[in-house]
Amino acid sequence: xxxxxxxxxxxxxxxxxxxxxxxxxxxxxxxxxxxxxxxxxxxxxxxxxxxxxxxxxxxxxxxxxxxxxxxxxxxxxxxxxxxxxxxxxxxxxxxxxxxxxxxxxxxxxxxxxxxxxxxxxxxxxxxxxxxxxxxxxxxxxxxxxxxxxxxxxxxxxxxxxxxxxxxxxxxxxxxxxxxxxxxxxxxxxxxxxxxxxxxxxxxxxxxxxxxxxxxxxxxxxxxxxxxxxxxxxxxxxxxxxxxxxxxxxxxxxxxxxxxxxxxxxxxxxxxxxxxxxxxxxxxxxxxxxxxxxxxxxxxxxxxxxxxxxxxxxxxxxxxxxxxxxxxxxxxxxxxxxxxxxxxxxxxxxxxxxxxxxxxxxxxxxxxxxxxxxxxxxxxxxxxxxxxxxxxxxxxxxxxxxxxxxxxxxxxxxxxxxxxxxxxxxxxxxxxxxxxxxxxxxxxxxxxxxxxxxxxxxxxxxxxxxxxxxxxxxxxxxxxxxxxxxxxxxxxxxxxxxxxxxxxxxxxxxxxxxxxxxxxxxxxxxxxxxxxxxxxxxxxxxxxxxxxxxxxxxxxxxxxxxxxxxxxxxxxxxxxxxxxxxxxxxxxxxxxxxxxxxxxxxxxxxxxxxxxxxxxxxxxxxxxxxxxxxxxxxxxxxxxxxxxxxxxxxxxxxxxxxxxxxxxxxxxxxxxxxxxxxxxxxxxx
Length: 684
Prior knowledge:
Blueprint: H1 4-16, H2 20-33, H3 38-50, H4 54-67, H5 72-85, H6 88-101, H7 106-118, H8 122-135, H9 140-152, H10 156-169, H11 174-186, H12 190-203, H13 208-220, H14 224-237, H15 242-254, H16 258-270, H17 276-286, H18 294-313, E1 329-335, H19 342-353, E2 359-365, H20 372-380, E3 383-386, H21 392-401, E4 406-409, H22 419-422, E5 429-432, E6 447-451, E7 463-467, H23 487-490, E8 494-497, H24 506-518, E9 523-527, H25 532-543, E10 551-554, H26 559-565, E11 571-573, H27 582-589, E12 594-597, H28 606-612, E13 620-621, H29 624-635, H30 638-654, H31 660-681
Parallel strand pairs: 1-2, 1-4, 2-3, 4-5, 5-6, 6-7, 8-9, 8-11, 9-10, 11-12, 12-13
Helix pairs in contact: 1-2, 2-3, 3-4, 3-5, 4-5, 5-6, 5-7, 6-7, 7-8, 7-9, 8-9, 9-10, 9-11, 10-11, 11-12, 12-13, 13-14, 13-15, 14-15, 15-16, 15-17, 16-17, 17-18, 19-20, 19-31, 24-29
């Protein structure tokens, strides 16, 4: 019979080789003989951590610590349990105790860096990792953790250097390859990112996080079929992985599979996940469904409040802002999109024309990849606050310290939102605008900006201020000339629909097929990445009588080339129920008229708003039959098409759609009214 020492040696071999079940079985046999064996209790605790049994892990490691209170390694392991459980203060105390017992202990110092980074204390976190590397320069995990911290602070070059240092020491370090790939991706280096993530997947094929990160990169590369396969692999390995479900939903959305996207997102929400971004994604995606229901969206918004706002309600503090209704106001704007983005392009005219004597702008920016547009925003802001890596609590505290009067969410339920921070109500007045024309439903956001054409019924709880136009179009130097009507030379009408395929659904395709059937020889240009979704759309249209050669897909591209696509198009067929917004403005600027269908929700009335502000409301249909009729009538009237093409740009320039001064004034009038209401309600 093997001795305890021999059994322990065999169990340790299994543990180091990753054969956790075999190791655990032998360790438990040893405990039957020696129930207070410190090393066995500790190692069983480590196995419990790796297999997700955190309560058991804590019990085992605390028992080991009770038998050997001066053991720095066990204190460090207990810190890791606390960190994994989301108990940062206790984790830090355990790591600090380990460092007291063993000064310079690299594992404890680098793990302390991780916890500090999670608290937004990035400089302290980096210092902790550098302390670990002073004690042990060849400690690859510390280089890896330092890289994660530097990446969180936006220092991608130094982060990449740290990961590369880790890999020079430990070439088969899968986690470092994964982090290197993620950082290359975040810094816009897709090729090296793909190589690094594929290497990570080779080294650790059973890590769901790696496949999830690979899916996110492949999605951004418009390789949607491959992205979906990667997310599904992640879910095979981790069936309750919210990030992977969320990524899968985004990929389905971009392939125009809204039902599949909603199903994936409901997997997260119904599982009780604390992943607010996924619940936001569900709320936003519901707006795209052809059978969208305002009551269903409102119900999901109520669930969002119950899950993410209610636990914070009792901790929301009163505000000490000076209650003077006409003083200079501090306006805070929160966004990840202060860059070349549809939201950024729409709000930049406000920045350029705002009234600095009466309004002071604070930008809370979480831009992943700053560009020349970011520089423009920074130039026009009075205060620029980078917030990448800041927790909701830290960001809310910063906003309170800045004494912001009116805090504006520019993202709503779109990707990268900070609505869970708005739930903390760091400013006395909170509003939403610009993400898309609809309410967030977040109870601590009191107001939203819209316009008179978009609104068609009761709001989702916020007070609505009506602008002349929800949109203000800015070309920023993209003055590509309008060309003559393509149909006048090529002998056929070319329809276009350059919206994201998320907006394409079967009722819309049926209408397009009717239009193409009525306009003989016509063509349809769509914008979409390569993948099986193209064939799905082509097959659907073909079943309705539209030959495949009449449908052409254009690849997503840089903005200038995208605008030039319009030089091939005679008439844009707007999407419904979620209309094109900025894409319609782009088309009209390029001289291409848009036929739209107005619905009952704000997102389905974008075409009505834009076209009404150009005195072209006759191009807005009220039913699917009417949509087909309006499109066919216009497509078969070449003189009218040519006249519109020649006049649309001047119409745009003369309209409220490009009146930046009027746009800024109306926004700031709304901010002033919001503030006066608060002062009135909170008079001493």
